[in-house]
## 1
Amino acid sequence: MSLLDKNIGIIGGGIGGLASAIFFAKFGSRVTIFEKASEISEVGAGIQISANGINILSKLGVYPDYLEEVCFPDSILFKDYKAGKPIIEIKHNQDIDFPYVQLHRADLVDALVSRAKDLGVKIILGSNAIAIKTDLNGSKIKSNSNIYNFDLTVAADGMNSGVRQYWFGQSAALFMDQVAWRALIPSDGNNIEPTVFMGINKHLVMYPIRNGELINIIGVQSNKNIVPENWNNEGSPEKFCNEFSDFSPSVNRILSKIKTVKLWGLYSHPPLKSWSNDNVVLLGDAAHPILPFMAQGSCMALEDAAVLTSVLNDTNNINNALKKYEKIRKKRVTDIQKISSKNGKAFHLSNLILRKLFQLNLRLIAKVYPSFLNKRFNWIYRYKV
Ligand SMILES: Cc1cc2nc3c(=O)[nH]c(=O)nc-3n(C[C@H](O)[C@H](O)[C@H](O)COP(=O)(O)OP(=O)(O)OC[C@H]3O[C@@H](n4cnc5c(N)ncnc54)[C@H](O)[C@@H]3O)c2cc1C
């Protein structure tokens, strides 16, 4: 199926939906995005995009042309939460064709929207959409009270995908008993190194964004009380500081500068038997939830978009193409899901002996074989779609 002149509907204008829209448009398709929110925006948080994701952003024509204010970290430092002493510094590989980048989410989303609009993608805002019919000839999307016909519908409607629940028989995503506090503060000229502070049942990540003008702070902790996955969920800065008050004084000094914070529940959903149903296909968090402990969820949505569009463009049979997309992506995202949840456990070790052993192990690696961890993650960062 050459994608030239195909009519494609995309539900969801997040990173996955926008990236797919751009690829479809580049292949000559007519593309409409349906986005529930009244404007496409990402507020108040940073994001890390590793070399594999930047590779895709460059194929989209978004990086570097549409992205200006990014940071290029050399490494990430791991510290103990209390003493604040470095345990290991993992250098980002400098010999990959693409850099590791930290940026403001809003800048990334704005860049994707601008690129999509420049390629003629139509974006319908305030549109709560659902695929209402699908067969091998096409699919229909109902948005508000209008019905639209498409050759193919891509559901990139996120963790709580309505399409996944409607067409793939799954219930809503499950709360993972963990929450993320997310805040930005001005750096006031201070140079902050990207750092992970590993605590007991919680950890904290800090890194600079916007050319170093802002510091992005994420604190993740175990929490049994259900918190929605929702940007509008304001948290209390005082409570955030209190929850992390056992961290080192230097961390506490930084946390005390927070004026506003969002509290975000972490969710997941069980693996699906299939990612497509006739001419409706899932992508990004809608297809495969990834916990944020490897900073790969958006990178995987970007890779999905590249693979989906290229197999569709190369194959005559749409159904075979969708199966091929799933086959190419499933093993990789499953491996990344596993390593992300392993990291989550390692960052939160509460057993004193296990914590000491884990940190000793990392210190040993730092001394004896510092490039070990870079090599271990080569399969993630050097991957080329
Ligand atoms: C704390 C935290 C930190 C993270 N950090 C990183 C990181 O550093 N690097 C990284 O790569 N990943 C990171 N991630 C993961 C990343 O944010 C997600 O994996 C990524 O945003 C998924 O993109 P998506 O397009 O699939 O879904 P989403 O970004 O959720 O987009 C879905 C879109 O669909 C819209 N929508 C939903 N329902 C409908 C409907 N019925 N009709 C129309 N529109 C609809 C929504 O409004 C939304 O705009 C992090 C996640 C968390 C929680």
## 2
Amino acid sequence: MVVKTLFNSSVPRAVEAMGDTTAVLEQFTTQWSVWRFLGSYLPTPNARRFERVMRGLDEFIYGLIAERRAGGKDAGDLLSMLLLAKDDDGNGMSDPQLRDELTTLMVAGLDTTALALSWAFYLLSKNPQADGELEAELDSVLGGRAPRFADLPQLRYTEKVVKETMRLFPPAWVIGREAVNDCEIGGHGIAAGTSLIISPWLKHRDGRHFENPEAFQPKRWTDEFTKQLPRYAYFPFGGGPRICIGNAFAMMEATLVLAIVRQKFRLTSLPSRTVTPWPTITLQPKEGIYLKVESGEGKARPAKQETI
Ligand code: HEM
């Protein structure tokens, strides 16, 4: 979806190039530890996989840029906007600059939204009551037809499921900042140049702001609740000038995909499978998430609420 909407490119080629982006994400994370950082300079299997994936991504992106430059047409998508953009001196972006922008958008927009959806289905499979409320909303708003953009304002509970999922399992579980000047935060002196790590995972489970913080309760997201919540008690998309640029796009995409999939299928948990959150640069399920998929119609729902 990211590739289609941002670059209007054919999906199969992109899927080929991006098939192994988790290798890129893993490499970012492993680079955080000193030993692994040293290891990243050695031709380990991981480092070679990383090189291979990056070569594939570069080939795909540089290919798109060359095609578009040669065609010279405004396709009305983000790639065309970037190609047409000029700085104050009238200069456009170089190919490496465009490559950096496009790669960031692809990597930032792919895994994050997919993870939000994966965790949502996992949480729904563990919480039959919430799953039932979601099903009821989809039935009453859509009555079996596919959702459209115009339905979003009515899909209130569906959106709450996405919000509550990202509270408990924020795909970007840490966000980094660097202090520009010496400053003080919460009584701690911070020297200029210090790296700071802020964790939505921790803040989102703070009992001062969220009653019963470990429980999956989409219905807590009433307008009144949202209004009284301190600004950075909930920040799955970060904040300030660097806030996620795909924020609104991701909410729209996740809400619609959740509605479409849940409308057609019931996904129930498999007790034999464990799911362990795995904090790479994004929050992955370590062993994947395995669920039983059944046609959504006419299935009895287990009444018990499981713990997560
Ligand atoms: C559920 C889905 C997503 C989540 C949870 C998410 C989360 C984030 C977070 C936490 C940041 C860092 C913000 C900060 O430092 O304050 C970020 C940055 C960014 N995101 Fe997302 N994101 C999502 C989807 C997307 C999508 C769909 C796109 C593009 C289509 C995208 C593009 C970007 C870009 C380009 C940045 C860098 C912005 C900058 O540094 O100025 N994201 N995202």
